[in-house]
Amino acid sequence: MARPNVLLVVLLGLVASIAPTTALTGATNLTETIIYPFLMPDVTPNKDELYLCTPIKVDPVKEYYIVAFEPNASMHTAHHMLLYGCAKPGSDKPVWNCGEMQKSEMSTEGSTTASPCGEGSQIIYAWARDAPKLILPDGVGFRVGGDSTIQYLVLQVHYMFKFPADKSDNSGVFLHYTENSLSKLAGVILLGTGGGIPPNTVEHLETSCMIKENKVIHPFAYRTHTHSLGKVVSGYRVRYNEKGDDVWSLLGKRDPLTPQMFYPVDDTSPILSGDRLAARCTMESNRDTWTKIGATNKDEMCNFYLMYWVENTQPLEQKYCFSAGPPTYSWKQAEPSLRHIPDFDASNL
Ligand code: CU
Ligand code: CU
Question: Three-state SS for 118?
Fold first, then answer.
């Protein structure tokens, strides 16, 4: 890798100007958290619908625990923000174009795009309109730096409109963190599908995975993501009873076109080894052509993110639960053990 940019070597814990503050209400029983302002470095979006990314490298010698995410309140220009934890960033520039939805525009601008993470990508925070700060449950934190899998944090901001040349923006997130080690660690597992949606139809995109790691997983927040065809996205914990019957408990469901931030789960009871996670996206297409799963606005996505914590152990090694999607995969076709699918509930709010 090229010589790291100055921005990249700002270590999370070594910023002199940050003062300890009292913990956010209900945050934890920690006596104090420290705030790191992770903001865009005064960028001027030079076109509409631009996704920009900026990284920080976290101290590889010492662990930090992020306990709350506070969006920079002064922003009215950002459509959404995502915070990624990465093993490696997608670029070594201080700011780069990281547009998920605009691959089609890439050649016209001659600018290069790179994804937020180069390696080991996970979303740990999402902000969209009206989202308040996200405070993790008492004593829970995302472990970053040190020997954790998160060595970089990358902030992605979606700017809807081109700025006048004399205006700039520093939207971002105030990270509330502590250096005191926490026993409850947060993690995210992403459920999603590949496949495609036939023309002029309502299609179900489904995925499901058995949890095989011997951990007690406490779910607490979820986020849904589709592009424009999504009607309902639902996620479930499926547990098999003594008779081998599948019992479905709703983790959360919503209209994916409402702000795509993390919401509290419906049922916080633990997910155990031998349980299954399952998610369905109900998509309605009035298009005359197939819509494939992909990154641009013309494509679709079916994603259900589940945020959880574990105690005295590491978060799941399994970060993803993806299926091939339709027409290859459906719960019914692929999982004979799923005999009590809540077909109506999974697709209706
Ligand atoms: Cu957006
Ligand atoms: Cu997408």
Answer: strand
166, 252 Cβ separation under 8 angstroms: no
Give the sign of the dihedral formed by CA 212, CA 195, CA 305, CA 170.
positive
What strands, in cross-sheet order, belong to the sheet with 276-285? 201-210, 276-285, 230-240, 246-254
Q: Where are the alpha helices (DSSP H) in the chain?
A: 106-109, 331-334
Distance 303 CA to ligand 2 centre (A): 8
Give the CA distances from residue 230 to residues 46, 191, 208, 258, 301, in Å, rounded to whole numbers and listed in that order: 30, 15, 19, 10, 9
Helix ranges, 2-152 (H): 106-109
Nearest ligand to the CA atom of 100: 2
> What is the C-alpha separation between 14 and 29, in angstroms, rounded?
24
Q: Residue 220 is which amino acid?
A: F
User: Which residues are known catalytic residues?
Assistant: 79-80, 156, 158, 225, 227, 301
Spacing, Cα 310 to ligand 1 middle (Å): 30
Q: pTM for the complete prediction? A: 0.87
Cα–Cα dist 221/299, whole Å: 26
pLDDT of residue 99: 80
| pLDDT, tens digit (0-9, with 9 covering 90-100), for 75-100 | 678 888 999 999 999 999 999 999 86
Distance of CA 84 to the CA centre of its chain: 7
Instruction: Tell me the per-residue pLDDT of 262-281, one tens digit each, with 9 for 90 and over.
Output: 999 999 999 999 999 999 99
Report d(CA 262, CA 111) in Å as an integer: 32
Please tell me the predicted confidence (pLDDT) of residue 75: 60
Pick one of 3.30.70.790, 1.10.3720.10, 3.40.630.180, 2.60.120.310 as the CATH number of 6-182. 2.60.120.310
Specify the CATH number of the domain 187-347: 2.60.120.230
Return the ∠ at Cα 275 (arms to 256 and 336), rounded to 5°: 85
Q: What does the domain layout of the chain look like in residue ranges?
A: 6-182, 187-347
Q: Say if CB 222 and CB 307 are below 8 A apart.
A: yes
Centre of ligand 2 from the C-alpha of residue 53, in Å: 16
- DSSP states of 167-180 as a string? --B--EEEEEEESS
